[in-house]
Amino acid sequence: MAKLYFNYSTMNAGKSTLLLQASHNYRERGMRTLLLTARLDQRAGEGRIGSRIGIGSEAETYVPGDDLFARIRDRLADGPLACVLVDEAQFLEPIQVRQLAWAADDLGVPVMAYGLRVDFRGELFPGSAALLALADSLREVRTICHCGRKATMVARVGPDGKAVTEGAQVEIGGNDRYLSLCRRHWREAVGEGPEG
Question: What residues does substrate bind to (predicted)?
């Protein structure tokens, strides 16, 4: 039985590296995969998934409103798919998460989604919330805070290097804009607490 998997973490945990490795493993055995990534994140180039360690692969892009179930169904007309791998899954719309679940349930294709759990304000992304609700399997990809504890939060920093607490939920950036922190250091950075 095919399943919907959600691999989540903060920034810089190696989610894209794991996705690319999984795809490589399938392809090395002669199996086809479908790689999808959000069109709005073009840090590695349009239609490309890239890892900070220097590996990458071409991918199809998705935008709000795309019917991912139909896309997967149409790709199956060209032959079997061993797996669908989705990068930047936090940018999925809740209906698109349902479409991925339908693909696993009705088309028998495993779907592995990789993305952030929370935004810089400590709030769930809509796509991540839907994945947490619907995924058959949840896996936390761990990374560490500067203090050595597990990082579970993401802080967005401004040009002055200080954490910002307001703004649009989505702002594409890398190490220049985001820090992965443990909750204690995130709270300290954003000034949250009983006296903050």
Answer: 170-173, 178
